[in-house]
Amino acid sequence: MAGDQVHVLSALDGAKTQWYHFTAIVVAGMGFFTDAYDLFCISLVTKLIGRVYYTVPGSPHPGSLPPTVAAAVNGVAFVGTLSGQLFFGWLGDKVGRKSVYGMTLLLMIICSVASGLSFSHTPTTVMATLCFFRFWLGFGIGGDYPLSATIMSEYANKRTRGAFIAAVFAMQGFGILAGGAVAIGVTALFKNRFPAPPYAVNPAASTPAQADYVWRIVLMLGALPAALTFYWRMKMPETARYTALIAKNAERAAADMSKVLQVEITKEQAGDLEVAHKSPASPSFGLFSGEFVRRHGLHLVGTASTWLLLDIAYYSQNLFQKDIFSAIGWIPPAATMSALDELYHIARAQTLIALCGTVPGYWFTVAFIDSVGRFKIQAMGFFMMTGFMMGLAVPYDYWTGKGHQAGFVAMYALTFFFANFGPNATTFIMPAEIYPARLRATCHGISAASGKVGAIIGSFGFLYLAQSPDPAKTAHGYLPGIGVRNSLFVLAGCSLMGFMLTFLVPEPKGKSLEEMSRETEPEKC
User: Fold this and answer.
1) What does the mean pLDDT of the chain come to?
2) Residue 394: which residues within 8 A CB-CB, separation 6 or more?
3) Cβ proximity of 162 and 352 under 8 Å
4) How high is the pLDDT of residue 329?
5) How many helices (H) and strands (E) does the chain have?
6) Pairwise CA distance, residues 177 & 359, whole Å
7) How many Å apart are CA 137 and CA 107, to the nearest integer?
8) Quick one: which H or E segment has residue 38?
9) What are the percentages of helix, strand and coil residues in the chain, rounded to 5?
């Protein structure tokens, strides 16, 4: 009967690409749009918040968030995301993908709006309220990782499955661009309506009172696209694979497949699937069983460790953004700008970098993943990241010297390009393809949570590590570190380790989910 099971599910694997697939990409991708929008915007608005709430009268420098506050505002969302990945991954396997899918988007909508409503009388309470809502925003975003990947993999046919999952993840690119456009647009409107002098000319007037509304509006507008797709997310049916293989309602699965994807499944085939799943030969091992370790133990090590190493390298790259932008003159010294001028310049610079290096990489993955394969793209991406980071690190003094800034920007953009046309996309895709249906979301959540640990290390560990060894040159509030150049060597080593650990992950290209997960293979006694 196991053969009948594969026969029935092969109808889903062989289904033609339908309009519904593209609708599902947009609906499923809104979580990643919101994730990227928030992550992009929070790095901008924290500078504005520092000016609004932490400017010291008489200081020659504009206000900025203290290191501990900055770490809390950014880090609490990562902790929330990690928690959401584990919790919703487990819950999605227990009660169904659809049952909890709307909850994650609703959390994102509510908490995005609430983040902008963090009103209070003191900086401490404003930051505490903002951190509270950012944790729950991250919790909802975290849940979208395993659920969106699993849902898209279970809807897609095996011929274009990689491209569809990659397209969901590539919605991050649109989120980045939208975040940049909103920040630039809102700031430009307020600059025209409430002009202000540079900080060096008039420190008090350089941050108009209305600037406090700018960061709130930018954060709240991130909820709009998610809210517009909430209805369609709630209308999505449960995936046929979950309904048939876990809920054991083969007839309902056949009806959903026929209605949504225009695949004809007869009652006899549905009956075969139900009987097959009830067969004693059907495997039922759990996550902590010896059978899981035998079949997928090394796979889980591979998907979790490569995502961890990728995010260490990926999230630490903001360490030298300041050097790049200042060196090429995109961002003048802070004291020569008003609060809104600074936000405008940083948003413009980061949007240009994203447009040139980050976003194209996502769509190169969409275009080539089903022809080149996940394994080759991931291995190539890690290898190229290693090469470009070494290329930045070895002649670091040369790149940061006068007249060589264009080369530095090109190397920097190419590092981001091969991260996205490489492991940043494939580490998201492969965990949704190689584990059995009843553990698929859980294992994806574990892999994704491992990645968020890497993001925390990359964002905060290297923030301290990359400080200058000279105590006189460290940023205010930080201890001496090993410097940016030596940090780049360490990050190149992380990318090289990611390349080697990629060999633990199998290639899912052109194979059904049941082939990859060995869903119908009997357990060994």
Assistant:
1) 85
2) none
3) no
4) 67
5) 23, 0
6) 8
7) 6
8) helix 19-54
9) 75, 0, 25
Assess whether pLDDT exceeds 90 at residue 133. yes
- Tell me, rounded to whole angstroms, the distance of Cα 356 from its chain centroid: 19
Q: How far is residue 423 from each of residues 224, 226, 480, measured CA to CA in Å?
A: 29, 26, 32
| Predicted confidence (pLDDT) per residue in 137-159, tens digit | 999 999 999 999 999 998 888 88
Separation of alpha carbons 250 and 272, rounded Å: 9
At 107-126, the pLDDT tens digits run 999 999 999 998 777 899 99
Give the pLDDT confidence of 467-503 residue by residue, as tens digits.
778 887 777 667 788 888 888 899 999 999 999 999 9
Q: Report H helices in 55-96.
A: 67-95
pTM: 0.89
Instruction: Report the candidate in 334, 17, 356, 318 with the shortest Cα–Cα distance to residue 156.
Output: 17
In 3-state terms, what secondary structure has residue 97?
helix
* Best CA proximity match to 61, nearest among 50, 45, 72: 50
Residue with tokens 């574990």: 446
pLDDT digits (tens, 9 = 90+) for 248-279: 777 777 777 776 666 565 555 555 555 445 54
Residue appearing with tokens 């490569």 = 306
40 touches 175 (CB < 8 A): yes
Give the integer Cα–Cα distance in Å for 380 and 364.
Answer: 13
Smallest CA-to-CA distance from 462 within 435, 484, 433 is with: 484
Helix (H, G, I), strand (E, B) or coil at 172: helix
- Per-residue model confidence (pLDDT) at position 413: 81
CA-based nearest residue to 74, from 482, 452, 494: 452
For residue 420, give the amino acid letter: N
Measured between alpha carbons, how far is 341 from 39 in angstroms, rounded to an integer? 21
pLDDT digits (tens, 9 = 90+) for 312-344: 998 887 656 665 666 566 778 888 999 999 899
Cβ distance 100 to 91 under 8 Å? Answer: yes
Q: Which two tokens stand for residue 306?
A: 């490569």
Helix, strand or coil for residue 292?
helix
Contact 434, 375 (CB under 8 A): no
User: Can you tell me the distance from the alpha carbon of 433 to that of 371, in angstroms, rounded to the nearest whole number?
Assistant: 16
Q: Round to whole Å and give the CA distance between 148 and 508.
A: 18
Task: Say what the pLDDT of residue 211 is.
Answer: 92
Q: How far apart are CA 366 and CA 364, in angstroms?
A: 5
* pLDDT value at 42 more than 90: no
**Strand intervals (E) in 361-495:** none
